[in-house]
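Protein Record: Sequence and Backbone Structure Tokens
======================================================
Tokens: labelled as protein backbone structure tokens, with as many entries as the chain has residues.
Question of interest: how does this chain fold, as expressed in backbone structure tokens?

___
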Amino acid sequence: MRAKITYFVTAAVLVVYFVLVGSRGVMLIEHGTALTVTFGCAVLVLPVIGVWFLWQNTRFVTRANRLAAELEAEGGLPVDELERTPGGRIDRDSADAVFARRRAETEDAPDDWRCWFRLAVAYHDARDTPRARKAMQRAIALHEGRQPVRN
């Protein structure tokens, strides 16, 4: 729950920032000189990119949470079997062992979104966020019946 609250607060702050930056861009354009119109257009690009990025991330998180809920209802969520250090961090060797099992499971059933979801969790536990995100995107695409992009 804490992660959701943090996400929504951050998103709200970003939206306020985008509105403020956008209003400054419009003010520069309204000033009317060639220089201010150029700067105003350049300033307006930033909120457009930011809104697009925020929208894409929100869609990704929503879809991933939907998959997690469906997998939980089926009883297929991965069990946390990782060993932890005294400080609470995940033991690297333990994460690697779980990852190897999840990768083998995914290789055996490459068209099963459930396997890709569990692989994404294993990547995340192994601290490989870019691959975790790609595996989750693949799980989402398979779940939605779309052909996933090959990497």
